[in-house]
Amino acid sequence: MNITQKCSHSLSQQGLDLIFEQVLSGGQIFKDRNLLRHDYVPTSLPHREEQIRRLGSVLAPALSKERVSNIFAYGKTGTGKTIVARFVLDRLQKKARDYGRAVDTSYVNCRLSGTNYRVIADLCRALGQEVPFTGLAVGELLDRLRDALKSRGSAFLVVLDEIDALVKRSEDDSVLYELTRINESLEGGWIGVIGISNDLHFKDFLDPRVLSSLGEEELVFKPYSSDELYDILSDRAEAAFQPGALEDGALRLCAAMAAGEHGDARRALDLLRVAGEIGERGREKGILESHVRLAQQKVEHDRVTEVLSSLPLHSRILLIAVLHSENARKESLVTGDVYEVYRELCAAAAVESLTQRRVSGLLNELDLMGIVNARVVSFGRYGRTKKIRLGVEPRAVTSTFGSDGLVRGLLEYAPKSLPKQHAR
Asked: Cβ contacts of residue 314 below 8 Å, gap of 6+?
């Protein structure tokens, strides 16, 4: 190693040491950045008092071993559905312990669990019933869940977050039906379901029997206003940041930006946290509005680019098919329209196309990631189809795939199955 290399190596070590020491010493920006994470449940939830009271009053009879109504909570992402459910259940279970009442709770994110099997297996484990990760029939799992409920004799309150993922993946709501009707064959213990969905149209394609059981009570979460988001951020920021580290203008800008995107509190918290991290890396003493604007670019770019660049080949071709179809047609797209273009693109790229059933599954996956919006529409005895549109900016697709040698040429391809495209 020559002198230049040694000096460079030494400077690199010093730079790393400074970064590490800054974090270990607490830094000048953060006291506890974890308070800005989505999964942190604070001691108070501003502007959700009505929803807390409603949910608490529905679930309170569980303390007296009385069965409670199932409840369906819906609203857009970041409107407080999950955090309110966890907040109420945490306090309900604490009250149950104080008074020696038998109340069990479980929180399951259906999108992360992925399958009906895993969702029910998670519920079994929450009741102390060990089940294998795979290998049993869903009916056997439901029987084990019933046995566990009977043996414990407790009230079992279950949050099924992103409950629409259970139906969208398989287009089958039979497990939801079983869970909402399971109490009919039980004595002693029972289950109460709190379903949460970001999809305001989810109820439109549920079986009426499931809907009547799941929607015994409904709780609507409206988007936060800019002022409400400001109050939420102020509460968190006071404990998350060092005194004087956060300019009020930066806080208000975070709230305004998130309010402009459907009143999303998660978005606001992400912006504030990333702005703090940008300031910290720049060794600034405080967070300015300029840091928030940089954070907005980083959060949006990172999210969309990361998701798009990680898509498998057929999902990329399918997304380009949606892009071409949406450019060429003004009316709503349906699965058959997109599939026809997808097959043509596969032929142009010399790739063997998938079946329409598999492509429908890929559309579900893209919908769950927010890359497309695929709403199921029922035509009664003529079946169901999906109405499809892009869920991200077209330029995000073209810029990400424009550097992808496998599909770059498909962006310029003009599908013969579509009318002449117009400039967007």
From this structure: 346, 351, 354, 359, 362
Contact (CB, 8 A) for 102 and 156:
no
pTM for the full predicted model: 0.72
324 in the same domain as 354: yes
Domains identified in the chain, total number: 3
Phi, psi (degrees; rounded to nearest 5) at 80: 100, 10
Question: What is the C-alpha separation between 339 and 352, in angstroms, rounded?
Answer: 13
Asked which of 233-242, 248-257, 268-277, 297-306 is least confident by mean pLDDT, the reply is 297-306
Cα–chain center distance at 220:
17
Q: What is the pLDDT of residues 27-64, one digit of tens each?
A: 688 999 999 998 899 999 999 999 999 999 999 999 99
Residue the block writes with tokens 């089958």: 172
DSSP letters for 229-253:
HHHHHHHHHHHHB-TT-B-HHHHHH
Q: Which residue has the tokens 């002022």?
A: 227
Mean pLDDT over all residues of the chain?
Answer: 85
Over the stretch 167-221, which tens digit does the pLDDT of each residue have? 765 556 778 888 888 888 888 789 999 999 887 767 766 778 787 777 678 999 9
Of 241, 274, 308, the residue that ends a domain is: 308
| Region of poorest pLDDT, from 311-320, 366-375, 401-410 | 366-375
Burial class (CB in 10 A: 0-12, 13-18, 19+), 243: exposed
> Is 383 part of a structural domain of the chain?
yes
19 and 102 fall within a common domain: no
Last residue of a domain, one of 244, 277, 308: 308
Contact in structure between 265 and 224 (CB atoms under 8 Å): yes
How many residues in total does the chain contain? 424
Rounded to whole angstroms, how far apart are CA atoms 79 and 86?
A: 14
Task: Report yes or no: 260 and 229 within 8 Å, Cβ to Cβ.
Answer: no
CATH of the domain at 170: 3.40.50.300
